[in-house]
Amino acid sequence: MTTETPRWFTSSYSENGGACVEVATNLAAPHGIVPVRDSKHDTTGPVLTVPAAAFTAFVAGVRAGELGAL
């Protein structure tokens, strides 16, 4: 990843006290990546690094209802 520190964010739609997926969008513009992690189990665990364009397309698809029922 990078030497810049990710600022982790949990969606305000999270209904379970914040124990869900977190993203660090502060790295999208300067580095073109969006780190994603599972905060339910281990916030020091592995981080999936997604290209910013792919993450943007994913969020747009979710908002448009293109991914079906989850």
What does this 3D model show about the protein?
The longest helix is centred in the C-terminal third of the chain and has 12 residues, at 52-63. The protein contains 2 helices and 3 strands; from the N terminus they run βαββα. The chain has one domain (1-62). Strands 1-2-3 form a 3-stranded antiparallel sheet. The protein has helices at residues 28-31, 52-63, and strands at 21-23, 33-38, 48-51. With 70 residues, the protein is an alpha+beta fold.
SSE layout and pairings?
Layout: E1 21-23, H1 28-31, E2 33-38, E3 48-51, H2 52-63
Antiparallel strand pairs: 1-2, 2-3
Tell me the number of structural domains: 1
β-strand percent reads 15-25%
Low-confidence residue ranges: none
Query: Got a strand count?
Result: 3
What is the overall pLDDT average? 84
Number of helices: 2
- First and last CA, distance: 29 Å
Order of adjacent strands in the largest pleated sheet:
1-2-3
Rg over CA atoms, rounded to whole Å, is 13 Å
Secondary structural class: alpha+beta
> Which geometry do the CA atoms define?
globular
Query: For this entry, what is the oligomeric state of its chains?
Result: single chain
**Largest sheet descriptor:** 3 strands, antiparallel
Helical percent range? 10-25%
Please write the string of helix (H) and strand (E) elements.
EHEEH
